[in-house]
Every structure is written in structure tokens, then in C-alpha cells.
User: Fold Hydroxymethylglutaryl-CoA synthase from Streptomyces humidus.
Amino acid sequence: MSGTPAGYGIEALDVYAGSAAVSARAVFDGRGLDPRRFDNVASDRRSVALPFEDPVTHAVNAARPLLDRLAPADRDRIELLVTSSESGIDYSKSIASYVHRHLGLPPTCRLLETKQACYAATAALQLAVGYLAGGLSPGAKVLIVSTDMSLADERARYAEPVTGTGAVALLVGDRPRVLTADPGAFGVHSFETLDSARPGPDLDIADADRSLMAYLECLSRSFADYRSRVEGADFATTFDLLALHTPFSGMVRAAHRRLMRELYRSPADAVAADFERRVAPSLVHPGQTGNLFSGSLYLALASALDHARLDGPARVGLFSYGSGCSSEFFSGVVGPEAAAAVAEARIGPRLRARADLDFAEYTALLAENTACLRPAAHRDVDPARYAALLGRAADRPELLALTGVRDHHRQYAWI
Assistant:
């Protein structure tokens, strides 16, 4: 594996995590959850959708700033748009079709949607890199947008304070300023289990203990497969940074600790020091949003690049996990431009600029938000009802908003 970025990977990255957020502590206290468990959450805020937001608006609002920073010639080379989501709005029509329209992408663009819980964006990334590396369309680019809506409410118990909503957009091409994929450097592990599922458009079910065990097993097994493919790979020394799928920070800490002890029998103080150096930078942004589903890993990558101090090219180990389950450990190189490329998105300032909701405001929104994915032939949505709340968000950009449904056709407008 080369230490110098070259090849294919992520050229640009952007995030939309809503215009509003609620304190994780407020949700804990409001639901009467055991305060002794709060430290394991290690989260500050979770993003909250407003009733005019859905997976389409999240996706468009994440991707539009990224596209606005592109030269027109680069934008016109987007030949594939992939949305990844477990928050589908139709059993047949993809979210990608709406996203394509409202981003104004060229008609010479393939549209596709992927689904495998929180793994789907990584599947899309690997497919994109393989497509581009095949050389059938030199200079082509792929836009991947992971977009999801949280259905978590009081039924979710301890998952509610850490389940976010939003989208992450990735532009993939042959000028990978953010992350260059290491060719052939991956390991996978998959099996069937019901650790979480969405059997209906307004119902999330989860087995927290089974999910934790599956996540830990998949990290261990997928890295073992990675090591079998990449000569000399060592979890402790090969990677300058680590970014893991982050349902909540406590799960990431447990996974890192288990693998360090399993592979090296490292003492607790050495594990803690390694965690602070290689993992903790990736957890800052996720601590402000909650779990963004398949966008979670790439928000963690952005956080690592925004908060780690890098003196030169660095190798990043990435772990993607999707319930059900499929997982992958892979790697890439970030070069001297990576931090600046991510900084262009101003992710941290935009997260801090969201309107803060109190617990009563948050719970008042839940019923409408939960109905967002429920099929309806006709529905009216008035974004103006939430103007006062939006006015509390600092430096609010123009947003795409859901305005209603007519004969099952979703209607959108810029506000």
C-alpha cells in the first residue's frame, strides 16, 4: 500500500444534520432514564428533524453545498448518483430520483439506491471506486448520499438520546482530496441476525445487547479478513487514525478496547492512550448529531480530519457495520489537502448553529416526524409553521422543504 494519495476515493464531503437539536441529557432526564448510564453515551446533542424534513430534503441539503463548490465541468461529470437509506419513501421509486431532480444533476446520470442498514454507504463507496477504477468512463464522478430519518421515541429507551437524523454526501472520483482508497485493502464479515429492523414505515425495533455483540464480532472478524489480505497489517501500528461506525461513543470505545486486548493484551492505560490519540478525534461531530445510520462512519471520518493533528500523509482504518448484518474493515490514505478539503464544509460551525430545543419542544415534534415515512395519497405540510423555530438557527442557509403530497407524489420547495 502506498503512503502517497493516488488513485480513487473521496474528493469532497458534506453533512446536513438538520436545523434543530436537543440535548442528550435533556432526553435522558425527560424520559427518566438511569443517569448512571449517561456517561457511556458520551454524547452532547442529537439532531432533530422538523416536520417539513424527510430523507429527500436531508439528502439534497447535504449535497447542494458540496455541488456548489464544484466547477461546472466537474458537476457535469457526475455519472452515477447513489442514495443509501433505511428510511425509504416508496417500495419501488428510489429517493435518488427526487434528489437528482432537486440537485439539477445532468440527465446522463444513473440513479440507484442501496439498503443494508448502516453499511449501505460503504457498499456504495466500494462499488463506486470499482466502477471508476474500471476505466470505462475516464474522469467520471459518483455522488453518494446517505440519508435517514430517526424513528426513535420513548419506545427506543436508551437508543433515543443518541439516534440522530440527517445525511452525508460523498463525491467520489480520481482526485481524492479527502481519502484515497487503498486498492484491495479490505476485510468483510456478514451473517443474518435480527439485532435491529424496520418492519414498517413508522416502527423501529432493536435488540441493544444483540447489536453490541454483533458489532464487536464483526469488527474482530472483518479485521481478521483484512489482515489475511494485506501483508503486514497490524491494528496497532498500521493506522494513524481510526474511524468506526458510531451509534454512540461508548460502543466505539468498547470495540476499540476489545480488539486491543484481544490482539495484544494491552493494559488499560495503554488502551486509553491509544484511544485518545487515534479514535477520540473521530467522535466530536457524532457527539453533536447522534447516529446518522450509514452516514455515521463518514461523519466520524470528517470529525477525525477536523480534529486530529496530522503532519503529513496518514493512513486511516475504517470500520463499517450495518445491522442484520454486514460489515467491512477497509483503509485509505489522507494527504496534506484532506483537512482543508473537509474544513470547506464548515461542519462544526454549522452543527453549533442549529436551534436548541427543550424537551417539551422536542416531544411535540415526534408524532409528526414519525408519520413522515408513512404512505399518504394526500398530505399538506406548511414549513411556515416552524418559522420562529428556524429563526433561532444562526446563519441558516436556503433549504429544500417538503410541502406536501399529491396523488402520492411528494412536493418540495426551497425556503
In short: Residues 1-5 have pLDDT under 50 and may be disordered.
